[in-house]
Write a structure and sequence with these properties.
Layout lengths: L2 E5 L4 H12 L3 E8 L5 H14 L3 E6 L17 H16 L3 E3 L4 H6 L5 H14 L7 E3 L7 H10 L22 H13 L8
Parallel strand pairs: 1-2, 1-4, 2-3, 4-5
Helix pairs in contact: 1-2, 1-6, 3-5, 6-7
Length: about 200
């Protein structure tokens, strides 16, 4: 069985990718990045999700040099995906995984340059050049052309446990349903015609 490393943040999109990889028959491994100010609820969600998916090989990489966000939604880290996928490619080579799965969706590329298909393809190209002959890692982004509605619909078909995910930009006990991430989640479920188990 081929192994895939799934970048797991605890949010909807990466959760759907984890269940997508499981459905595709990959042996699962997960990679989560932590840094100062990372929301504890989001990190707890990654641990719930990987347990529910049955992933036995899970890695957490702490990035102490990343400054904590100054505001709830100012969470972009410069060159984040260059760093994340560089680490993922290195880990893949070390543990014998031929595939790295990322949860980027259409909206991400509209907001962040380093989440656009051409940028991610360039990062994959660098990883392939470095890899040993015949062992090049492949980057897969199953939903990079999909909007939130279609990601949620795919997750529903895959039986992704949406109740185990965390989307809120705040670190409260429950989702606030007011921040940008919560509003995007509300809109996605509404357009998909599905009930969010966290709001039911």
């Amino acid at each position: 069985m081929k192994k895939a490393i799934v970048l797991l943040s605890g949010g909807l999109d990466s959760a759907v990718c984890l269940w997508w990889a499981e459905r595709k028959g990959f042996r699962l491994a997960t990679l989560t990045f932590t840094f100062p100010g990372r929301r504890a609820r989001e990190l707890a969600a990654t641990r719930r999700l990987r347990r529910l998916a049955g992933s036995k090989e899970n890695y957490e990489v702490h990035l102490p040099f990343v400054p904590p966000p100054k505001a709830e939604e100012a969470c972009h880290i410069p060159a984040r995906n260059l760093m994340y996928y560089g680490v993922a490619a290195s880990l893949a080579g070390a543990v014998g995984a031929g595939t790295v799965v990322g949860g980027h969706i259409l909206h991400d590329g509209a907001v962040f340059r380093d989440a656009r298909p051409e940028y991610l393809a360039a990062v994959e190209g660098l990883a392939r050049k470095e890899s040993s002959a015949g062992r090049a890692v492949r980057f897969v982004f199953p939903f990079i052309r999909a909007d939130k509605k279609n990601v949620i619909l795919a997750g529903h078909r895959l039986k992704t446990p949406f109740a185990a995910t965390w989307s809120c930009s705040r670190n409260g006990m429950k989702h606030c349903w007011k921040c940008g991430s919560c509003r995007e989640r509300i809109s996605g479920f509404a357009m998909a015609g599905l009930e969010d188990p966290l709001r039911g």
